[in-house]
Amino acid sequence: MMDRIQNEQMLTCHGNMLGRRHAVEMLDAGLAQCDPYRGVKRLMRLEGSILTFDCPEFELKDDPRSGPAVYDLDQYDRVIVVGAAKGVQRAALALEEILGDRLTGGHVIGKHGDPMLLKKIGVTLAGHPLPDDFCMEGCEKIYAWSKDITERDLVITIAGSGISSLLTWPIEGVSIAEMREFTRMMQQEKGIITEDLNCIRTHLDRMKGGKISRLFKRASLVHLVTTDIAKTNTPVVRMNYETFMRENRFLATLADGTTFADAMEVFHKYDAWNRVPKRIQEFFLEADPAYETVKHDEYESMNARVFGLTPKYATVYPAVADKARELGYTPHMLCEYLCAEAKEAGAVTAAIALNCDRSNEPLAAPCVLITSGENVVAIGHEKGVGGRNQEYCIAAAQKIAGSKRIVVGAVDTDGTDGPGGLQLPGAPNCLAGAIVDGETIAQAKARGIDLNEAMRTHGTSAPLWELGCGVEATPDISVLDLSVIVIQKEDAVQ
User: Fold this and answer.
1) Range 175-206 burial, b when 16+ CB lie within 10 A, else e
2) Burial, 272: exposed, middle or buried (Cβ in 10 Å; 0-12, 13-18, 19+)?
3) Domain at 367, CATH number
4) Is the model's pTM score more than 0.85?
5) What is the pLDDT of residues 328-370, one digit of tens each?
6) What does the pLDDT average to over 203-228?
7) What is the Cα–Cα distance from 449 to 466, expressed in whole angstroms?
8) How many domains does the chain have?
9) Which of 312, 345, 378 is the last residue of a domain?
10) What is the domain range of residue 298?
11) Is position 87 within any domain?
């Protein structure tokens, strides 16, 4: 039985059944490893009144405050939990269980469609990837906890993927509707990468860019990050504490490395300045220092610790690699941070797999090519129901059409690939991704399903579900996307 993938039978009853089953098992192993509930339970313990955070693997290298973080809860009036992320409730649930009656309360913001898990910590489900009124409502509830904060409060924050949308409370004069349209334009029309977009929206927000820490600065702060905070775009390079805090641009609770000038560069890089509402233009032209994000020196003045709940050894790659070896494949990390147009990434990685299939070069079968990262889809004006991992897989399926021993699977680790909105009997609102093989294109043609049109309109979810290729998964914390390309040995093909 799978931990996260819910429709194993549908995915594995057609096409290359053995290869598809192996792809499902590998993807599920990676998805199961993302659960921050496990990380919190490893990191924290409460013995009497003494709360200890102690797991060296969860610390950034060269953290000047390295070592156990110990708090005597008898010395605090309140213990408060706030935060936002896709699947944030899994981390918050562990906090509820550990703290018990010592927990005062708090508020977190999750994604629409998440199940309600918490009893003592308030929850608002809000818009992602496009912010909505519920994002602002959740932020206002977090802000309410900060109004009377004192030195006798302990505040635990939770941050992770999705926080850039979910934690949205625009500056005065900018409406949530304008932020939503601006985000839609930049993501879907311009195809902006998240790192660049965050340069802009951290400045346009009352909480992002470390401003939430500023709100609670009088308290003792413990920041929990659901991802691997030391990860960089280079697989072998691990970021140290100093570098991370000066360059961070994706974790909204911590010091922010971007400036107004960086944001202006992004506007011009994507030729977006003339599409921006007048109030936003005025804000960036003024570049009022009072609205600058929290920088390293200010953050260091706070009584704060930071822990990443998913260190490198516990991220998806080792889990997928172990499952691959168990199934008789040699795993290879093809790219640890793949960021490209989704359909182009799918075509290129599938082409590499074809070369392995045909000539055992550059890698010999049986093997698995693994990628993670966050591809993009430039949607334009088309508004079909789909997602980047789905487009990745369809493009790969077109490349491997006719192959007898290649299977491609790709999912968003939070279990939701795209904004959702799929309305088919028995189907989830939002697919997690897809699994395809060399027979997928022929099956689509036989059933009169036009995958080229699905890609053009970005309406990939319905046809993939009808083909038995759409992945349904339970929602959780996101640690970027995960793809596997299974290349079987010849005698393994059924």
Assistant:
1) ebebbbebbbebbbebbbbbebbbbbbbbbbb
2) middle
3) 3.40.1480.10
4) no
5) 999 999 988 888 999 999 999 999 999 999 999 999 999 999 9
6) 94
7) 9
8) 2
9) 312
10) 36-169+205-258+293-312
11) yes
